[in-house]
């Protein structure tokens, strides 16, 4: 036992006498430990970058979804508004011949004859009441007599030379036009002037 103890004591003595002999082994252990930490740090940095990229992608997707939802809500609101404004379009269009017939009746009645005065007054009141009622729902009459020709609201049925009015002026109205809340229901049928040759 004492012989075995001697080599151990000698090894201990060598280590104490020469601490540099143990140095390279310790440096190698430190390098291994340090490179292991760097690998973990590099892995964590990669995972962090991936997580940040995914977060940015999710935020972008969320913003797109929110914008799509806002656009859908806005379109739905506009559709509802248009439905309210123009729900009566077909109905109002079907009523226009009634006004036309009342106007024709007034045009053909002899206003000179006293016997027709009551009829004239009744038809005029009926027509005024009718126009006032449809005006409450956004139907407006277009009567462009003497105004400049507007192709968005007028339909030229004839063009006649005239020295009395400026060229491109509505000289007579064959049939009045109508619009519903700014949307044309029917263009006014008109005669338009042009410069005399």
UniProtKB/TrEMBL annotation:
Pfam families in the record: GrpE
GO molecular function terms noted in the UniProt entry: adenyl-nucleotide exchange factor activity; protein homodimerization activity; protein-folding chaperone binding; unfolded protein binding
Known function: Participates actively in the response to hyperosmotic and heat shock by preventing the aggregation of stress-denatured proteins, in association with DnaK and GrpE. It is the nucleotide exchange factor for DnaK and may function as a thermosensor. Unfolded proteins bind initially to DnaJ; upon interaction with the DnaJ-bound protein, DnaK hydrolyzes its bound ATP, resulting in the formation of a stable complex. GrpE releases ADP from DnaK; ATP binding to DnaK triggers the release of the substrate protein, thus completing the reaction cycle.
Keyword match Coiled coil: yes
Protein name: Protein GrpE
Region annotation Disordered: where it falls in the sequence: 1-33
Compartments, record wording: Cytoplasm
Organism the protein comes from: Arsukibacterium ikkense
């Amino acid at each position: 036992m004492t012989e075995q103890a001697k080599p151990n004591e000698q090894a201990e003595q060598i280590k104490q006498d020469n601490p540099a002999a143990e140095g390279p082994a310790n440096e190698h252990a430190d390098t291994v430990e340090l490179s292991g930490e760097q690998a973990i740090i590099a892995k964590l940095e990669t995972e962090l970058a991936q997580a940040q990229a995914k977060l940015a992608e999710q935020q972008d997707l969320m913003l797109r979804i929110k914008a799509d939802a806002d656009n859908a809500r806005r379109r739905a609101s506009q559709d509802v508004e248009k439905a309210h404004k123009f729900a009566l379009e077909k109905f109002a269009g079907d009523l226009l011949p009634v006004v036309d017939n009342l106007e024709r009746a007034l045009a053909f009645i002899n206003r000179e004859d006293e016997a027709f005065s009551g009829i004239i007054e009744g038809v005029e009141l009926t027509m005024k009441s009718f126009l006032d009622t449809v005006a409450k729902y956004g139907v407006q009459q277009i009567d462009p007599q003497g105004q400049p020709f507007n192709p968005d609201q007028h339909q030229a049925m004839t063009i006649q030379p005239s020295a009395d009015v400026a060229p491109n002026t509505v000289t007579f109205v064959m049939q009045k036009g109508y619009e519903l809340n700014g949307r044309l229901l029917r263009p006014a049928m008109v005669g338009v002037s042009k410069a005399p040759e």
